[in-house]
Request: fold
Amino acid sequence: MKNLRDLYLSEIEEELVNMGEKKYRAKQIFAWLYRGVDSFDEMTDLSKDLIQKLKENYEIKCLEVAKFQKSKDGTIKYLMELKDGNAVESVLMKYKYGNTACLSNQIGCKMGCNFCASAKIGFVRNLTPGEIISQILEIEKHSGEKISNIVFMGIGEPLDNYDNVMKAIRLINDPKGLNIGARHISISTCGLVPNIIRLADENMQCNLCISLHSSKDDVRSSMMPINNRYSIAEVMEACKEYIQKTNRRITFEYALVDGVNDSLADADHLAKLLRGMLCHVNLIPINKIKGGNYEKSSTEKILAFRDYLNDKGIVATVRRELGSDIDAACGQLVRSQK
Ligand code: SAH
Reply:
C-alpha cells in the first residue's frame, strides 16, 4: 500500500483524480498530514465515503516512538519503531535559537567509519521519504515542541540515500508541508563525491557538512574506508565546485582523537588545506563507542587546535556535546535497542 507521506502534493492530486475524486481534496489531505494527523478518521472535512476509500488504498503512519530517554541537558533520544519491525534513533536537541531534530535516513550504514557506532550494525535498507519526515512529526507530537532546524546526522549516509533524502527535504521545505526553510537544514556526508556535485546542481539552499576528520589521506583512510574511494583532494575539488555553484559556506566536521589527528601540526596542515575556502570548521570531541579504541583529546588540546585555526583565519568552533550521557551524541546512534 502506498504511504501518503511519501508523496508530493502533486502526486496525491494525481492519485485522487485517478480515483475519480476532486483534485482540491488533495490539498485538504496534505494539510492534515503535515499537522501530524496519521489516521484518516481525524480528517474531519472529508466525506465518510472518501475516508473509506482512502483507508482501503493508502497508509499514513510508518513509525512510532517505542522508547525515549532524556539527558541531563534536555536532549531527548527516541527509538523509532518502523512497520517492518526495524528501528532507528532520532534526537531532539534544544538550543537557544530553536529546536533541532537529528534524523536517521538509513537503517544501518554501509560506510564503515571505525569510530561510529552506526557503522557497526550493518546495513539493512534505506528509509523512505515518509519515514524520514515522520521522525520530525513524531518528535513534535511526543515532546510538544516545534522543530525549527533539521540535521541529517543520525544513522546512515544521506548522500547514499540521495533520492529519498532529497524528496524528504522538498516536503520539509514545502510551505504547505513542514515549511522549514532549506537554510535550516544540514546534510552531513562522509564525502560521496559524485553526489556532492549532484547536490550542487539542485539549487537548494541547505547547509552541506563534510566529515573530514583528517587532512592527511593515510590518517583519514585509517578512520574512514570511503577515503580509499574518494581522496581528500577529490573531496576538496567537489567542495570547491559546490561553493562556486551555490555560494554557500561549507562546514567541515573534524572529530578530535587523542594522538591521531589533534596536534598543532595537524591543525597547521588542515589550515593549509582549507586556506581561502568559504568554510567553517566544527570540531567535535570524539565520543567513545563500545569496542572503539579512540580516546577523546583533552580540552586544552581541543581549544589549542581551535585557536590555532582561528589565528590562521579559518573560523573554527567546538561542537557542544549534547546527550552523551544517554548515548545520543555524535556517532553513538544505533539501529535497535529495545
Ligand atoms: N553519514 C554522515 C552522517 C554521520 S553523523 C556523515 O558521515 O557525515 C554526523 C557526524 O558525527 C559526522 O561528522 C560523523 O563523522 C560524526 N561522528 C561519528 N561518530 C562519531 C564519534 N564517535 N564521535 C564524534 N563524532 C562522530
Notes: Residues 63-326 form a domain with the TIM Barrel fold (CATH 3.20.20.70). The pocket of S-adenosyl-L-homocysteine is lined by residues 113, 115-116, 153, 157, 188-190, 211, 253, 255, 284, 286-287, 289, 330-331 (CB under 6 Å). The CA atoms of residues 42 and 234 lie 51 Å apart.
